[in-house]
Amino acid sequence: MGTGELKVPRGTFDVLPEDALKRRELQRRTWAVLGRGGYRPFESPAFEDTELFERGVGESTDIVRKEMFTFEDQGGRSLTLRPEGTAPVCRAYVEHGMHKLPQPVKLWYWGPFFRHERAQAGRYRQFSQIGCEALGSDEPSLDAESVLLLAELLEAAGVRGATLKIASLGTREGREAYLEELRGYLHDHEADLSQDVRDRIASNPLRAFDAGHEGTRTVMAGAPRLLDRLAPEDAEHFAEVRALLDDAGLAYVVDPTLVRGLDYYTRTVFEFESDKLGAQSGVGGGGRYDGLVEELGGPRTPGVGWAAGIERILLASETRWPAAPRPVFVAIDDGGNRREAFRLVTLLREAGVRSEMEQAGRSLKGQMKHASRAEARAVAIVGQEMHWRDMDTGEQRPVTGIQEAVRIAVGLAT
Q: Residue 347 is part of a domain; what is its CATH number?
């Protein structure tokens, strides 16, 4: 057994109290934004049957090929720590018969996800996401609503100036002719493509648009564009989504190379990017996945949704997050009764006042220094008599007892 210093595994991190307060406030704002849209909270297990992601996300994706944390349990079953949230939502939709509910079913979730990615700023192997899914309608208004809710959430979180990119991938059936054309183009330029792209020409040629390989990027600059070859009904759907976003006053850029990284996407895809995040600029995005529920054994069910990285939102945010309320500190002077101090701090907490008491054996002078470092707004000093010190003004005065001290503290809090 090693004797070196123990640290968190590579690609993970501890959430220290100051950051935990920001995350809690972001979650509160998420509840407010998505709740107003009629979306209800949902939670899925942190691990699922591996088959769910192989079938749902797609065996040709980087997630399934390279990034999943997969293990065998004691019963010999293959399980995977969830790398994304949409497939579990669709699995739950099928398993719990949600197609019998009034449609669309609108859900949102918050929690940890796991991918074995190259660790870098804002990207971790255990990371947290907010996700938002609406299942049971192919209305363009649901696409627009989804985009607008993410825009509203980013605004509420203080992410300013994010660029919205949108595109359409059409339906699976509608893009088959295009995919054959793209495969032909890629085969004609195969010598200049990366090995990874060459390996996926047959299974997922659209991924070539996401490649970082310089030769591949040069080839793809001249590749045919799916947006120019959409089936009429897919083009009409995309036009309606754009019109609704225009009516809402949300600016966007139509990006014909936007494909996202998951096989289940159909029709509308979108992504918000922030220049505060460097080369990996995506802060959140998603799209429509009209065949996923059916792929997982359910009825034909259109769906649309998105996910946004919590760590990436906080990195891109320009907001001043609320700090914890300043405490009242209960100090104990020579001759002070510790039981009386404990009773006072208990009554203060019951009255809704954040309060702490001396529990480290410090002198009164040391206690006052500690209270100052803790940014206490006041100190109740329990000695042979009880005193109250305002830490902002330095004023100190006697109080008649515990009840008066509680009344003063409650007055400060309000």
A: 3.40.50.800
- Is pLDDT above 90 for 212? no
pLDDT digits (tens, 9 = 90+) for 84-129: 999 999 999 999 999 999 999 999 999 999 999 876 666 789 999 9
Tell me the C-alpha distance between 220 and 378, whole Å. Answer: 65
Residues 6+ apart with CB under 8 A from 357: 329, 330, 331, 332, 341, 342, 344, 345
User: Could you tell me the pTM of the whole model?
Assistant: 0.89
Give 238-265 as a DSSP string.
HHHHHHHHHHHT---EE-TT---S-TT-
The reply to whether omega before 104 is within 30° of 0 (cis) is: yes
271 and 237 in a common domain: yes
pLDDT value for 369:
96
pLDDT of residue 158: 94
The CATH number of residue 244's host domain is 3.30.930.10
Name the residue range of residue 368's domain: 328-413
Instruction: Give the domain-ending residue among 316, 349, 378.
Output: 316
Q: Residue 121's pLDDT is what?
A: 61
Residues 23 and 125 both lie in one domain: yes
